[in-house]
Amino acid sequence: MFDAIAPRYDVVNRVMTFRMDVGWRRRTVAALDLPAGAVVLDLACGTGDLCRELQAAGLAPVGIDLSFGMLAAARTEAPLAQADALAVPLPDGAAAGVTCGFALRNLVALAPFFGELARVVRPGGRIALLEVATPRNPVLRWGHQVYFGRVVPIIGGLLSDPAAYRYLPRSVAYLPATDDLLAMIAAAGFTAVRRCTLSGGIAQLLTATRRDAEGDGDDGDTGRGGPSGAGS
Q: Is the pTM of this model over 0.70?
């Protein structure tokens, strides 16, 4: 499916999010709060949007995606590799950080994925996971359901693959409840786990710090807010 939609993937993203996805990715990179030159893996990197943002921030991204079609359509100078996000072809602690955009809902099981993040990120490293969400406000939630359930498939059908864009808006249903999701990240070996909602709750940013070998961290808790509050 992702091979099929790769050629028009960026165009459809910009149109269906009214370019809000650009700001979401910049927020994701800023949330890493890593020094210049730090190696950051972008898992499920797609066409390289987050890789470009990471490079613009002075970081050193490496893109990994299972879809060769996405990698072939990538527009980034970052090194890329075709690989499974559950079996990253790098040694333990190889990265200072990890980003991942809009891929959690496509994984059959999230616990193994978070475990792989803990393996590949060095102690004190950071993760920033960008994903879709459902607004809590009932009016926004209704509008969100109408737009992404009915309008987005039409847009996707006109510009790309209709079947894919019927699946993608519905795939948010595969995400676990927020508290369960944050607990899974903490259980994998992360501390200071935070969830920040974006654009009224239609997207979410999950951040955390890799706990060191002794289990020390900032505070070891999980929460729904971040340093900048509930998002925008």
A: yes
